[in-house]
Amino acid sequence: MRKIKWGVLGTANIARVCTIPGMKLAENCETYAIAGRSMEKAQAYKEQFGFEVAYDSYDALLADPNVEAVYIPLPNTLHREWVIKAAKAKKHILCEKPMAPTAAEAKVMQECADQNGVVLMEAFAYLHSPLIAALKAELDSGAIGDVRYLENAFVTGSYDLSNIRMRRETLGGSVYDLGCYCISQAIWLLGEPDGVQAVGTFSPQAIDRLTTGIMNYADGRAAVFTCGMVLSRESIGRLDRLQIHGTKGFIRTDAQYNQEGTLSYQIVTKKEIVTRSVYAPQNYSLEVAQLGRCITDGEKPHVSHEMTLAIARTVDKALKAIGYVE
User: Fold this and answer.
1) ω into 101 cis (within 30 of 0)
2) Which of 77, 157, 218, 282 could form an S-S bond across to 233 if both were Cys, CB 3.0 to 4.6 Å?
């Protein structure tokens, strides 16, 4: 098995806690290079995770001919710039979600990747989970009949105002940070909606703290999502929920997005309640391994360009509905 030499552009917390540990688990990944805004930060990551080289600038990492693929965990406002720079440097790219603040920007980024012959995939790690595959298979098999309604939620505690999630200038807010999970899950299971209605409450910093949306489908189906950063951080501080209702019954699970381990869901009908379980490896390792196979084996990105655009279009509509954007 050929290992892909990866570089990481940035020392964000998501990289430290989730993605780099996932890289270490992916058999076809070599954690080769790390870049930070300072050599001190980059060197600390090099020592902690065993990178071969450290750089004090992102440009220096992209100039390294040994780097084949890069992971971009930078703030949302920097994704477009560094995806385009990475593509022009002929590096394959895994870009943290949401890849772009708008569908128009996502299209520009993908076109640049295509022009430079590199793979670009948005980093929705949970979509690689066997749990999502199992839920989709249940729907496709007709386990609950024709789907009529989906409801999901992703709510966390609030953050310090210094956190990029809480600042307008870094495209913070619950829809960008959490709602994209709910929206992407609904689209993965039901398809892209035809319309979106939403309401939100805003912080003094003008970011949405809590948003509820209704995704409408022309055939009468509906998906309702709630996302927010309002829970007490002194408690468990997180709510994950999914129910899918059909003409014969419903499916429910409280498994968390990106949860690892043995995960269960229930199929509830008038006749019985059936509990089923699947084992989910570390989700971030799955997305890294899959992008590696895209490079070596010609696989198509699991989170396709079409999927990224559908998510971005729906996020656009939700943000316009709550007045976050014009």
Assistant:
1) no
2) 157
At residue 141, the pLDDT reads: 98
What is the structure's pLDDT at 1? Answer: 86
Query: Rounded to whole angstroms, what are the CA distances from 73 to 36, 122, 148, 151, 272?
Result: 11, 11, 36, 29, 44
> What's phi and psi for 192, nearest 5 deg?
-70, 135
- pLDDT for 161 equals 86
User: Which helix (H) or strand (E) is 228 found in, with range?
Assistant: strand 222-231
Q: What pLDDT, on a 0 to 100 scale, did the predictor assign at position 52?
A: 98
Tell if the pTM clears 0.70, that is, is over it.
Answer: yes
Which residues are catalytically annotated? Answer: 97
Q: How many CB atoms lie within 10 A of CB 302?
A: 17
What gap in Å lies between CA 145 and CA 143, rounded to an integer? 6
The residue written with tokens 């300072």 in the block is 38
Alpha carbon dihedral 67, 69, 71, 72, in 10-degree steps, equals 80
- pLDDT given at position 100: 95
- DSSP string for 128-160: GSHHHHHHHHHHHHTTTSSEEEEEEEEEEE---
User: What type of residue sits at position 221?
Assistant: R
Sites in the chain below the pLDDT cut of 50? none
